[in-house]
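Step 1: inspect the first sequence and its tokens.
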Amino acid sequence: MSELVARHADNGRTLEEWLRALRNALASHVGQPSLSPEQFVGALEAAFSGPVPDRDPAWRSEDLSQDDETPTDAATIDRILKSQVLDLEDADASGALRDDYRGFGLPVGRPEGTLRATDGFFYN
């Protein structure tokens, strides 16, 4: 993993772009019962260099919540990635991404009643 990150140290993608590209790279594996380590690393690599699809505005109205008792599967990972992208957008809109104390954790600024698979705090 550290070699992968080092190879792409000069990559100019934002974390949000990388997450959308990762989601895109994982899409071809959705029907598989699991990923091999090579497939997983390949998806991580593709997130640095593959296409970055646009965020679907419909994600904002989806119930992206996750029951902690449900086993993790492709649908769970998809909800988590969508949630992370939306949380980054909300953190930017709320100012949490620019707050000097963001390393201690701040609410991302989600709209009231939002249901997501991730915690509502942002740490940088």
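Step 2: inspect the second sequence and its tokens, then contrast the two.
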Amino acid sequence: MTDNSEVIKILRSKPTLEGAGVSLKRVFGYYETPLFDPFLLLDHFGSDNPKDYMAGFPWHPHRGIETVTYMLSGEVEHGDSIGNRGIIGSGDVQWMTAGSGIIHQEMPKLYDGMMQGFQLWVNLPASHKMMEPRYRDVLSSTIPVVTLESGTKVKVISGVVNGEKGPVQDIVVDIEYLDVTVPESSEFEYLTNDGYTAFTYVFEGEGIVNNTEVSSNHLVLFEKGSEIKVTTQAKSIRFLLVSGEPVNEPIAWQGPIVMNTEEELQLAFKEYNSGIFIK
């Protein structure tokens, strides 16, 4: 495979506060949305200090999006307005489709060590913004890990690598979500789908991504349908590799609700304030 794709943008995650006072790193969000369609936001949370995360994310609404929570280490207890309850543990994934509306909370539990993970927001097309909400809790034990000839390990959350399918299927917007670890002095090559938005987010180590030196806490956004090549030297590198089919629709976004028009957005908040948000 030849390296003929171009890097569109490199971003460094920025410290921010969310929820009831959780310290995290915002990788991209509202202002970068046009570049990342169908993705809206990526947050990277991680700390060994409980004061940074124990306040959590108390009850709040969502409509018109999916949230994908991937825990590297630690536990988050969740509950929602339609009766779902559970714990997302180390290595687990929760794929929540808010659809027509859901009110939920996500509360980290005290953890002895580095509590770390990610939350990705995915836009829903107009045809599915008012679909019935659903949760999919995916245990780490069900997520395949593919070992390539180079020694690279790929955890396949959604998508297909070397014939191994991720457990998250039957999703609205076609998405690949991979956790990739390339050992030192190695190489990893991957071809994303033509026309798809694709990015890598490095959270451990360093390497060269399509001829660009990249270290931890940096995102690389590629041209659509990219050939991605990652090489390492003295250090290994671990990163998320995410790609998805653009929705290509107008966005009206305020807080936790993302619709297509301002009228739909204001209706959502009116319904929430009137107690008729849940369908």
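Step 3: confirm your contrast with the notes below.
The chain has a mean pLDDT of 95. The longest strand covers residues 197-209.
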